[in-house]
Amino acid sequence: MLGLLLAKRGVEVTVLEKHADFLRDFRGDTVHPMTLDILDELGLMPDFDRLVRGRMRAVDFSTTDGTLVHQDLDAVAPKGAKYAEIALAPQWDLLDLLSRKAREYPSFRLEMEAETTGVLRDRLGRVRGLRYRQGGEEHRLRAVVSVAADGRHSGLREEIGTGVRELGSPIDVLWFRLDRREDEPTELRGTIGRGGGLVAINRGDYWQVAFLVRKGTDAEIKEAGLAAFRERVASVASWTADRLDQLASWDDVKLLSVTVERLRQWAVPGLVAIGDAAHTMSPMGGVGVNLAISDAVAAANLLAPDLLRAQEDPDRFEKVLNPAILDRVQRRRQWPTMLTQRIQVIGQDRVIAFTETPEGRSLLPPAPALALLRGPIARVLPRVFVYGVRPERVAG
Fold this sequence. Notes:
By secondary structure, this protein is α+β, with helices and mostly antiparallel strands. It has eleven helices and 21 strands. β14 (189-193) and β15 form a beta hairpin.
């Protein structure tokens, strides 16, 4: 997204993608109104609509003992909101769309199978580009600004070197596929029960299933055996029971270790981090890709004018480009990130508590707490996770 937006403004930009394609199972598929607005502003909605496999017009939090919350999105939409739905589209298809549109601009270049191996620095220690490996050869790419947008395992985090604030997470996710029949719902399916929480994402002919468990218990679960795990999943979501034999071995179940953290400082001279490279999000609320896109829009809005001026006279770019402008990205995006992460941490604690409810006690909270959950909380949380704390708009 950042490459597309900068190229649209006339900035020369090169994107380095480590892999040969964008296919990654762990990528989320929920595209929220805060992102739909951005795609609409870019004129991409007709193309994006062809990628959509389902739409959610309400948010449901259910347990095996009944519904916690059902909230229609149009009832909590900000005034003038154009979209009151969450679109379900494979993230790799969205990335293909963005890269295809970006290639229409002559100043955009995408290098696939190009793995970043380090940074280039000047004699003062400022970052002045990247080193990368492609086709078995080492390359150097000089740049006015380098952006770390390569996720939670970004190798460029160490180059920023200011440390990470870890907020902790009590959950991990066990990730697997189950067949999906044509007559089944198209929207995301989810529930919480004793023993775990389950979210199933529609990916056409299969469900991508995320099963939430207490962090650090995966070895214990495996020791109990695959049959016991199948029973555990079925007890939370009975509709999965007739297909859990598709989990033939533990090779079919992958562990996603959940972390919630953020860099203390997102930028140093010549290098700035955005998205999960700057702030690793929990899967709670499916907000990660949406915050990353908002970061990209903010970064493009803030950096493009200075990058264009630097581009006009590249030999003088050190004088033209004030390193302090990179700090503006963090100032703009840190508050929405901090608030969202804080709510995620609280939500994770509540979810894991639900999954450990003793037998004989309802998973639904007492009436006063349930009324609060279905009232103010049900109105506030969708505004934060679905519409965004500080939604970004495309400039220029």
